[in-house]
Write a structure and sequence with these properties.
The chain has 334 residues and is an all-alpha fold. The protein has one domain. The protein has 14 helices and no strands. Helix 1 crosses helix 2, helix 1 runs parallel beside helix 13 and helix 4 packs across helix 5. The relative contact order is 0.14.
Length: 334
Amino acid sequence: MGRIARIALPGIALLVSLVALIAALNIGGGANPPLLGDPGLGVRFGLPIAKLLVDITAATLIGALVLALWAFDSAEAAYRKAIDLAAGSAFALTISAVAVGILTFVSVSNTPFSADPKFGQQLWFFVTSIALGQAWMWTIGLAAIVTVLCIAVTNQTALFFVGLVAMGSLVPMALQGHAAGISGHAAAITSLGLHLVFVSVWFGGVVSLVLLRKHIAAVRLTAIVSRYSTLAIIAFIVVAVSGVANAAIRLGGWDALFTSGYGQLVLLKVVGMLALGFFGFAQRGYLLRRMATDAARSAFRSFTFCLMASSRHRCHSVLKPRSEYWLLSLVGNT
């Protein structure tokens, strides 16, 4: 891969993610003005984009830590680089979560953003007294703690507990994913929590492998990719099952699968999951064998191309059936 291609690849991947997100918002109805107060076009699109950044940074954080614990030896250079990547991702997650918290407040309260002290007082009340705001406050706090811990910790045993704290930052997201008091709340929260964790392991592991490739010794590359592939298979199964369960709870019936925008989005995700399953089978059965030969470098590029397609799933995972859900979540949790 040439230097220009390496420089352009992250930007292209982000652009594709944004295009997929905007398309999904239009298909699922999230781009439409809500029934009860419109916070404006900037918030309607800015909030999902900020959530996309939260998802990507959280996944990269967890993926880097999982690779450090599961695939890398503490003596190799890639191990330390993985911790550094986790620290950077945790910091980016903190900033992204702050943006989501502010935009969420503007969205549910229909209060225009302002430098007025009254806006700050209302925002503080939201993040300290309202369940939805508290959830984002917890995410921000846990992400900030993980940032510091990743800078300070290098011991592999201690890093395991850092990883638990990092996964804990996903808990508030799962808890706000379905309004309390609505039918199937416990099942929805459980399935969404599993979905978030294993999507992060899957997608975050791919991103981390790509970013850390040049720090992985050539003789270790095949073994590390093989170990990650085992995790990816487990993650794929859990993501598929939990995704089906969560979609079934949200849709409420088969008719909504074909008549609602969210149902159509679910169908697109099913097609995407089947395609990703095929990619996984291809890299497991063919590309890993090539990586054991002199063609390891070109095979790794093919492996990267196949698995980076999973970025579409991260775009879709930030969406809700309707924009009005934020209000339901606020009411249901108070």
